Structures are given as C-alpha cells and as structure tokens.
Amino acid sequence: MAPNTLRDAIYAVRTARLGLERRRLDYGEETREQAERLAAVLPASAAELREYEREYEDLEWFHDTYADRVAEIHEAGVATDTTHWRDGVTLYVVCRALEVETVVETGVLFGSFDAHILAAMCENGGGTLHAVDLPGGPPGPFEYGHLIPDRCRDRWELHRGDARDVLLGLLERVGPLDLFLHDSDHRLPHMRFEYETALGHLEPGGVLASHDVRLSRLFDRFTEENGLQSCVVCDTGIGRVPSSSSAD
Ligand SMILES: C[S@@+](CC[C@H](N)C(=O)[O-])C[C@H]1O[C@@H](n2cnc3c(N)ncnc32)[C@H](O)[C@@H]1O
Asked: Which of 81, 111, 140, 243 is deepest in the core (most CB within 10 A)?
C-alpha cells in the first residue's frame, strides 16, 4: 500500500473510533468541569473563568447573528454534523483570560471558532485573528467564515493556502502569538507539523490549542514532551507554554 493510502486508511480508522468515543463521552459533564480544568492551565481562577462563561451566554449581539447564520447553513443542508461547534465557548473563555492580541488559526470552514475568538477580541477591545484555509471555499453558497458577525470582521485576516506552504511565513510575519489553534488537516503528520511549527512562535505563557485531540495521543504527548501544562475540554486541547513570570 502506498504511504498516503496507508495514512488515509489509518486516519479513517481513527476517525471511526473517535465517533464511537464521542458517543460515550459525557459532554454535559465536560462542559460543567470546563472552568476547573482550564484554571489548572490558564492565569485565571475557576471563578473568573465561570464569569467569562456567563458573559458569553449573555452576549446577545453575538448569539443573535450567530444563530441566524447557523440556521442558514443548516437550511442549505451543507453541514450535517455541527456538534463540535460547542467547543467555541472554550476558545472564548481562553481568549478572554489571556486577553489575546495575536492569534493564528488553521482550518476556517464556516468560521465557528473564528467567530468565538473574534467575539472575545471584541470584548477585550483589541486583537487580530489570522486564519488559514485552503484555496477555494466551504460547500454551498457561502464564503469562509460565514458565521463571523459583521462587528468582528475588521479583526479577521484570511490567508488562503495550504498550511504546509503558508504557515511558517505567516508566523514569522505576525508572531509572537498569544494563541495558536489547529483545526485543519487532522492526519497525524500534519497535526505534528503544525504543533511543531507554531510552538517556537508562541509568547511565554501563550497557548497551543487543538481541536480533535481525542483522535490520538499526539496532543498529550506533544504537550508533555515540550513542558506545556495542558487539559482537554470536550474535543479541544489547551496547552500553555510556561510563563516567564512565576506569578501565574
Ligand atoms: C474541520 S474544518 C474547520 C472547522 C472550523 N475551525 C470551524 O470552527 O468550524 C477543517 C478545515 O481545514 C481546512 N484544511 C484542511 N487541510 C488544510 C491544510 N493543509 N491547510 C489549510 N487548511 C486546511 C479545510 O479546507 C476545512 O475548511
């Protein structure tokens, strides 16, 4: 079997296994424990993080637009499994706690995570999200980032290209980063490539975040090998580079 075919076959098996694991996972409990898990990693207490969760729930300007756009995507019948969008709140809380200024994300599609990161930036009152996705666009009559509310769009810069080709140059131009988020190609060599490329461009105290970390042990191993404190909430891994100050 050719190496790429073998990799695709392994990826298909991992994805199927993840589907089964997700059915067993208690997402309600994961969400309830979110603040405690994140507090072990972030420079904020569980009480402060729960306050950001409440703030997110009350963010009417965000939820009104977001719900309308989700409905448009569902009506067009082009996104059948959008359950992972629940992870957006984790990213919102992380971005509020870190008061992120510079964020890079790979894998935009409809932009659920972009919308949440940008909403936090709006509430922070600053920041830019650089987002990478392949040339082309999402399925249906939509552009990349359709879910992003208009009021956040001026903080968003889309870079089209394969992350393998554009990520390093982008990081060199815009870094150091407060947060890097992987959500593009989840085959292990690509995930590892993105983690390794991003790690050297994170600020002390910055966060390496990744979606779909339950596909394999890669995120846990990578954060452990590189001395990052980490936790997983639902399907998102959060790993923090040690801060230069001992205070947090
Ligand atoms: C799971 S979706 C991203 C979902 C998105 N983060 C959200 O919040 O809804 C994966 C995206 O990664 C993009 N992608 C896949 N391989 C890529 C690569 N090598 N470089 C850049 N983007 C890639 C796909 O085009 C797709 O839009």
From this structure: 111
For residue 137, the CA-to-ligand 1 centroid distance in Å is 10
Whether 193 lines ligand 1, by a CB cut-off of 6 Å, is no
| DSSP conformation letters of 149-175 | -GGGGGGEEEEES-HHHHHHHHHHHH-
Of the residues 11, 90, 91, 108, which should be mutated to test ligand 1's pocket, given the most ligand atoms within 8 Å of the CB?
A: 108
Beta bridge mates, 240: 207, 229
How far is the centre of ligand 1, averaged over its atoms, from the C-alpha of 186 (Å)? 9
* Number of domains, the chain: 1
The DSSP letter of residue 106 is E
Q: Residue 172: which CATH number?
A: 3.40.50.150
